[in-house]
Amino acid sequence: MLAGAEYLEGNGDPGSLRLFRLVPALKDLVKESKEKIEKVELGWLVTYEVVGGELRDLYDPYRVTFTFSSVPEKKEEQCTVAWKAEFEPRSPAVPPPLKAKNAALSFLKSFESTAMPPPSIVALDGPQDQLKVQASPRSSQSIL
């Protein structure tokens, strides 16, 4: 999914700028995504706004929040990862970012498959564009 990632400014704290370059298979969707980190609660939440790249050309704002919640009966072993996108199309002709949603799901699945058994999908949509995946706290923190 990722061909490269780097911090342009900062080290992951709020205000940091990071740049993701995606693999050729996703280049018809997004080649690069420049993101400003807005909020971090280590191990629990990260919010960023896309400030450059193809998504920014289509949506303003385009903000993503990853939230990590413990599974009550398996607190030390599992958590739920929720992905939420808030966006406003720049024009009425711009469709909702369904490809970005599917790419986020693929990213979480591929990440989990390298760390532990495949995740369980809890939900793919909701009142706002969201998806939820069962994951381990250990690997979820690495996403931050």
Automatic annotation (TrEMBL):
This is Bet v I/Major latex protein domain-containing protein. Residues 4-112 form the Bet v I/Major latex protein domain. InterPro entries: Bet_v_I/MLP, START-like_dom_sf. Residues 131-144 have a biased composition (Polar residues). Coiled coil: none annotated. It comes from the Eukaryota. It comes from Dendrobium chrysotoxum. Residues 119-144 are annotated as: Disordered. One of its GO terms (biological process) is defense response. Pfam families: Bet_v_1.
